[in-house]
Amino acid sequence: MDFEKQWKSVTRENRKIEPSSDRRIWNGIEKKIRVKKYIRTSFSVAAVLIPFMAIMGLYLFENGNSSYSVQKELVFKSSGSRQAFILSDGSTITLEPQSELVLAEGFGGENRGVSFKGKAFFSVAKNKEFPFVVDAGGFKVQVLGTQFTLDQRENNKVYLKEGKVKINYKGRSTFLLPKETWLADKNGVEKHFYDNDVERNFDFNDLRFDEAVSQLEKTYNVLIEYPREYKDNIIAGDISGDLEKVLRTISFPFNLNIEKKTHEHIILKK
To answer: Who's near 235: CB < 8 A, 6+ residues apart?
Structure first.
């Protein structure tokens, strides 16, 4: 408005200016007036928006923190292929096809509970404050930090690769050792067995050959065939070692050789 007043005062004083120059100067002044008005308007809008945006930002920040500390329930699924997921606590879950993992509300901040269906390999990050608990329907697996495989496809089965695992099943608690498998079949019958390379101690004092073989079958979940003529022969002694070493020891007096048909099927033959 100052530019406009100045221009009018000049006109009133009858200053001589060419018409073309008069119009050119006036256009320039109008342009400056518009720019100045735009700047004042922008500052006015900013003065209103900045406090509003600050309030909205604070609201979103506070609500963002709230939803992070109380995590919503999340679902991880695998379809036709194996898929790996990293959870917020640092654990890695590798789901086999057609498997599902559901995180409990508050996972990572208030608990580390999950529910599971299918088959998966769990590499659980250590956290002494919140145990990692898997609800697998008919049983629960609890760990602090470990690696294990859980399989529900045929039977309820847990294989511990390393660390410690506690299994709660039908009111009973079972603790697994590394390379040990826990299995509950569809009839609810439980089995515990080890990998073939795990060393165990066996008390075979005054034990029949068939009873010794039966112990090894249960310990390692294998089928051992042998000449039935030796089933009543007595074995004497404590034996320590893995499956192959123990079999060689009890077979030596009878000159039996070991033939491995498969990992779970062994034949002792002459």
So the answer is: 204, 206, 207, 208, 209, 212, 250
Query: Checking DSSP bridges between strand 112-117 and strand 132-135, what pairing results, if any?
Result: parallel
Give tens-digit pLDDT for 133-142. Answer: 999 988 999 9
The pLDDT tens digits for 218-246 are 999 999 999 999 999 999 889 999 999 99
Residue that is written with structure tokens 């898997």 in the block:
134
* Structure tokens, 264: 């779970």
Q: What is the DSSP letter of 252?
A: G
Q: What is the pLDDT of residues 133-169, one digit of tens each?
A: 999 988 999 998 899 999 999 899 999 999 999 999 9
CA distances from 27 to 2, 20, 22, 31 (A): 15, 11, 9, 6
- Report the residue count for the chain: 270
The pair phi, psi for residue 29, each rounded to 5°, is -65, -40
Distance separating the N- and C-terminal Cα atoms of the chain: 117
**Interval 69-91: pLDDT, tens:** 233 458 999 988 999 999 999 99
Backbone torsions φ then ψ of 192, nearest 5 degrees: -130, 130
Q: Which residues pair with 165 in a beta bridge?
A: 176
Q: In a 3-state reduction of DSSP, which class is residue 106?
A: coil
Residues in Cβ contact with 183 at an 8 Å cutoff, skipping those fewer than 6 apart: 155, 156, 157, 158, 190, 191, 192, 193
Contact 122, 96 (CB under 8 A): no
Mean pLDDT of 182-197: 94
Q: Residue 201 CB: number of other CB atoms within 10 A?
A: 9
- Predicted TM-score (pTM) of the model is 0.69
* Separation of alpha carbons 216 and 200, rounded Å: 10
CA distance 219 to 86: 35
